[in-house]
Here is the input.
Amino acid sequence: MLDRLPVEIVERIVAKIPDTDLIAASKVDSVWWQEVRQEAYKRWKNYATTIGHVQALGKPFEKGNIDWISFEDVNDFYKRWIDRLTEDQLYIMEKMLRNGMVVNPQERETIEFALSEHRWGGDPWRLDWKWNDWTQQE
Here is the structure.
């Protein structure tokens, strides 16, 4: 029955599927596969954009003037937030790669590198959350 739904309905359903179940929906038929692939790319881009926005949110605090909150709290908060977003993004990327949804060789290399870095405890996006500027302020 799912393979007979109009594309517009499939798009709306796929958009509501959580990341953990998204790739499984691609097994219905070729229309679902294509919609899931497009949705996965969209989520990959959204995670990357969100990570950039989170980085930008931390910029005002680099100059000091954080009387209302301690350095450790801010650093821990941003680190956890970025780590979670990175894990979610890497999950989508890995599932896309393993299910043949990535055809661009450069994207393939990017995903393989990021997954390798993450598995070895590295920072795949080179965000380096040491924030040394904060600790060296007068």
